[in-house]
Design a protein that fits this description.
With 151 residues, the chain is mostly helical. Helices cover 83% and strands 0% of the residues. It is built from four helices and no strands. It is elongated and about 140 Å long. The protein starts with a helix and ends with a helix. The relative contact order is 0.02.
């Protein structure tokens, strides 16, 4: 219907030229619209990436702060434990004061007898081993030649 109106208004000689020009402008308009769409999409993606980047930075800062908090807590715990250990060592050092000359420490004779018993046991074990070795050497065996003959 538009073609019929265009034929009547423009005329048959100019109609092909006008149609080509109109087609070129339509193509340019379509390219321009697609470029604008791409630009808008690019801006939207850029804004999404920026918001994602901000979220990642916030998450990284939270992780960093939690790690630093845990480190601080660990340092405080270690410090308190070392102070407790030092506090326990100080009273122990006070208890180890040298005693007066009137107090004497006696050693129990049980340790000496235990040493004597272990020495005696070792000696008997050595004697038994020596006796077994001499018994093996002096055991009666048939000479080789006789063994071969007996077969």
């Amino acid at each position: 219907m538009i073609a019929i109106v265009g034929l009547l208004v423009i005329g048959p000689e100019k109609l092909p030229k006008v149609a080509r020009t109109l087609g070129a402008y339509t193509g340019r308009l379509q390219r321009y619209v697609s470029q604008v769409k791409e630009e808008v999409n690019r801006e939207v993606r850029f804004e999404e990436l920026q918001s994602l980047q901000e979220e990642i930075k916030e998450g990284a800062n939270q992780v960093k702060s939690s790690i630093l908090g845990a480190k601080h807590d660990a340092e405080e715990t270690l410090k308190s434990l070392s102070e407790d250990a030092e506090a326990e060592q100080k009273p122990a050092a006070k208890k180890k004061r040298p005693r007066k000359a009137s107090a004497t420490v006696r050693k129990t004779p049980a340790k000496k007898t235990t040493a004597k018993k272990t020495t005696a046991k070792k000696a008997t074990v050595k004697k038994a081993a020596a006796q077994k070795a001499t018994a093996k050497k002096t055991s009666t065996r048939k000479p080789r030649a006789k063994r071969a003959e007996s077969k």
